[in-house]
Amino acid sequence: MSVVTELIRKEADGGLSFGNYELSAKAKLDNYEVGGDLYKVKTYCDITKLEKNGMFVYESVPGTAVHNFVENEDGVEFEVEAGQDCQITLELLENQEYTVTVNGEVLGQMTTNMGGKLSLSLEMDPGAGQKVSVKK
User: Fold this and answer.
1) CB of 134 closer than 8 Å to CB of 108
2) What is the assigned CATH class of domain 8-135?
């Protein structure tokens, strides 16, 4: 895996890839259109954030590179890479229970708060990705 040098891109399978945790200065790209939706990404070593139509979607601290991010009515799936351990916050449906799976291992059930946010922490090996699935 590698960082997304263009900050955000649409993959052939329809997923999005975004983020560059190797940047020392903040970089952002606004109004990236995919299927009628406008995305905004902000990224650098300390944080990566994705918004869709002005609404929060994804945030990691510190920054990450996300590959093949796919969201649907059941949840989200993506691969994530970082230079160190990270905390990821996702915007999902509020007060819903989701099953969180990392690299095929079920971590358990998590319930979103009233704002629909779900946070998880990942232990990362620099340069190695982890496949994350969060499903209702």
Assistant:
1) no
2) mainly beta
Q: How far apart are CA 81 and CA 135, in angstroms?
A: 20
Say how far apart CA 116 and CA 79 lie, in whole Å: 21
Cis peptide before 62 (omega within 30 of 0): yes
Q: What is the pTM of this model?
A: 0.94
Sign of the CA dihedral with 111 first, then 115, 121, and 126 last = positive
Complete edge-to-edge strand list for the sheet that includes strand 117-122: 27-34, 37-44, 47-52, 55-61, 86-91, 117-122
In sequence order, the 6+-apart residues with CB closer than 8 A to the CB of 112 are 92, 93, 94, 95, 96, 98, 118
pLDDT at 126: 80
Query: Is 40 within 8 Å of 31 (Cβ atoms)?
Result: yes
pLDDT of residue 1: 60
